[in-house]
Amino acid sequence: MFGLFGPRPAQQMECFRSRYTGRSLIVHQGFEGDWLEELLKQPGGGGHFRIDSRRLPTRRPTPIEWLVQTHVLPLALPQPLYLDIREDAILARHLMRGERAVHPSEIAWFLEELDTRHHARLEFTENDQMTIRRGIPETDNEALSMLEQLGKH
After folding, report:
1. What are the distances in angstroms from CA 103 to CA 19, 34, 121, 151?
2. Alpha-carbon distance 100 to 88, whole Å?
3. Quick one: pLDDT at residue 14?
4. Three-state SS for 62?
């Protein structure tokens, strides 16, 4: 039994990690135009879990809702926000350039450099907390690997 007020944070974290480690998540506030359709056309584009943050916070959140409302939304990064859930951390990179979301095809370029070019790294700790390490500035959201490839031609 989870108790009167739902699962404890340690249980939520354990459930989240067991279900989502090795996966990706896009946190969004709805998609403009045909952005979602374009995402689904990309190789692997349908494999990203998606969660609409407009419905958060919820009173009895699922593990993914709990993680997003407790640890991701407080970062106040623009959305859509790409999360790469790893064994030891979550790497976050927003998908906005100026006032518009980048084209979904650029996500592949972001993934090539995500280890070194992320906006935030949320590291799992032993006590079921997270340590936040900021990365590249929020205003920096160029896919350098793409620009380098274009410059070679």
Report:
1. 28, 10, 23, 19
2. 31
3. 93
4. coil
Q: Please give the order of strands across the beta sheet that includes 89-94.
A: 49-52, 24-28, 81-85, 89-94, 120-124, 130-134
**Whole-angstrom distance, CA of residue 58 vs CA of residue 135:** 29
Over residues 139-143, mean pLDDT: 90
Taking the C-alpha atoms of residue 75 and residue 77, their distance in angstroms, rounded to an integer, is 6
Nearest to 80 by CA among 19, 24, 11: 24
User: What does the DSSP assignment read for 90-141?
Assistant: EEEEE-EETTEEPPGGGHHHHHHHTTTS-SEEEEE-TTS-EEEEE-S-TT--
Mean pLDDT, residues 61-68: 94
> What's the confidence (pLDDT) of residue 1?
37
pTM of the model: 0.89
User: Alpha-carbon torsion 118, 92, 26, 113, what sign?
Assistant: positive
The model's pLDDT over 7-25, given as tens digits with 9 standing for 90+, comes to: 788 899 999 999 999 999 9
